[in-house]
Amino acid sequence: MPNIRDLGELTGEVLLFGGVYSNLQALHALMEVASARGIPASHCLFAGDAVAYGADALTCAKRLRDWDCPSIRGNCEQQLLDGAADCGCGFEDGTACDIASKTWFEHAARQLGARAAEFWQSTPDWLRFRHAGKQYIVVHGGTDDVARFIWPSDDIDTFDREISAIQAQTGPIDGVIAGHSGVPFERVISGTTWINAGVIGMPPHDGRPETRYAILSEDGVRFHALNYDVEAAAQAMEQAGLVQGYEVGLRSGIWPSEDILPAALRR
């Protein structure tokens, strides 16, 4: 059984975001967006993966803790808690993603050390909330695999299985908020809406350096570009020795490898 935190009824705008990815500049920009829109931290929902490619794993963990927005564990948090050697994404051995992930994960582990429990020991697996008369669940990847990649191009059966697995734990729902894949999208499957808000720490492989977040309102969900100090984030990675290509991806908006992407999403 997943550990589920119930947020109760949320009103007004709800900011949805995933994948801070140790990108401190993007996190600060997102917090400024929330402040400018008058959205309190209690209505900013984080779908996990506080740390990854960027330089500032520890500082991002601290900022998220101090901001106190409702959050769930991503696979990166879980792997750090478990003292694992990698991010747990299941990349094939020897692929570009596999090789690069070992470097940035080791960097994050060095910064956080044994402090992972301080930040995420009590963080739930899922969130539940009600908004505009609808029931939502926030998950990271898949329902039985926190590191499962679910893409907008996946077939209906994939979504049906995931939604059925969630409802077996929670009862009927109207929508799912997910993270992990890094690509924002919305699909309606048999009356249930699946929303991936995207991630703020890395652009969605579309040739633009802006990253993505989403705003849920009574009119539905809208995706937004996040402008932040890309050059400062990339330079911080270079100074930390994180030069496996993700620092270039921040600037170009193109991922350094398409290993993990389904054919339909490759350029």
Structure characterization notes:
- The structure is a single chain.
- With 267 residues, the protein is α/β, with parallel strands linked by helices.
- The chain is built from eight helices and ten strands.
- The strands form two sheets. Strands 1-4-5-6-8-7 form a six-stranded mixed beta sheet, with helices on one face. Strands 3-2-9-10 form a four-stranded mixed beta sheet.
- Helix 7 runs antiparallel to helix 8 (246-252).
- The longest helix is centred in the middle third of the chain and has 17 residues, at 96-112.
- It holds the Pfam family Metallophos_2.
- Residues 24-217 form the Calcineurin-like phosphoesterase domain.
- It comes from Litoreibacter ascidiaceicola.
What are the salient characteristics of this protein?
Purple Acid Phosphatase, chain A, domain 2, 267 residues, alpha/beta, globular, four-stranded mixed beta sheet, six-stranded mixed beta sheet, single chain, 10 strands
In short:
By secondary structure, the chain is α/β, with parallel strands linked by helices. Helix content is 32%, strand content 19%.
* Main sheet makeup: 6 strands, mixed
List segments where confidence is low: pLDDT < 50 over at least 5 consecutive residues.
none
- SSE order, one letter for each helix or strand: EEHEHHHHEEHEEEEEHH
Distance between the termini: 39 Å
* Biggest sheet strand line-up: 1-4-5-6-8-7
Shape: globular
Secondary-structure-derived class: alpha/beta
Tell me the strand percentage band: 15-25%
CATH class label = Alpha Beta
Q: State the total count of DSSP E strands.
A: 10
- Give the total of domains: 1
